Amino acid sequence: MHVNVVKELAVLEAMRVAELRDRYTQVFGEETRVGNKAWLVKRVIWRLQALAEGDLSERARKRAAELAQDADLRLSPPRQKHTASASIQRNGKASALANGHLPLPGTILTRWYKGQNLKVQVLRHGFEHEDQVYRSLSAVAKAITGSHTNGFLFFRQAFAGRGGNA
After folding, report:
1. Which distant-in-sequence residues (6+ apart) come within 8 Å of 52 by Cβ?
2. In angstroms, rounded to a whole number, what is the distance separating the alpha carbons of residues 121 and 131?
3. Which strand (E) or helix (H) includes residue 121?
4. Over 80: is that where the pLDDT of 158 sits?
């Protein structure tokens, strides 16, 4: 069996996902539930090449198995990232964020930036930084950095509860 890889690849890339899944079933002898077109194309073309030119040698299979045994495998899932809407420290107690974003008035957000410990107090209608009141955290971040910056991202450590809130 000879496969013209370029022609076969062009045919596969022109197929819809349902057609690719049928083709996968033909070449592998089993169905797949995968709906990723690029993955299906790669797998089918690989299988066609393997059938036409021969699969891996026994030596290559043994070497791959050795490498797989030596690989450092992750045994636990990655840690979850903290989100800004979870909770924040206020006067030593955790309190829910109002509106899913903003901490309660009176909360002090702190962030270490360019050798300075920045402190921003949440007000009922704005934010206070260095005796100046701003309408948004982004305005505070812009005043500090000199460029437009998303305030929630700039103060993200404070929102995650790791920013040393007072």
Report:
1. 1, 2, 3
2. 10
3. strand 116-123
4. no
Q: d(Cα 66, Cα 46) in Å, to the nearest integer?
A: 23
Place of tokens 């050798």: 115
133 forms beta bridges with: 128
The CA–CA distances, whole Å, from 132 to 74, 83, 90, 111 equal 48, 28, 21, 17
Cβ-Cβ contacts under 8 Å for 123 (sequence gap 6 or more): 105, 133
Rg of the chain taking only CA atoms, in angstroms:
28
Distance CA 101, CA 150 (A): 13
Token output for 25? 């079933």
With vertex at residue 92, the alpha carbon angle to CA 89 and CA 111, rounded to the nearest 5 degrees, is 45
Q: Is the pLDDT of residue 87 over 80?
A: no
Distance between CA atoms of 159 and 96, rounded to whole angstroms?
11
Residue with tokens 């974003």: 101
CB–CB of 97/88 below 8 Å?
yes
- Take residue 138 and report the two structure tokens written for it: 């982004």
Provide the whole-model pTM.
0.38
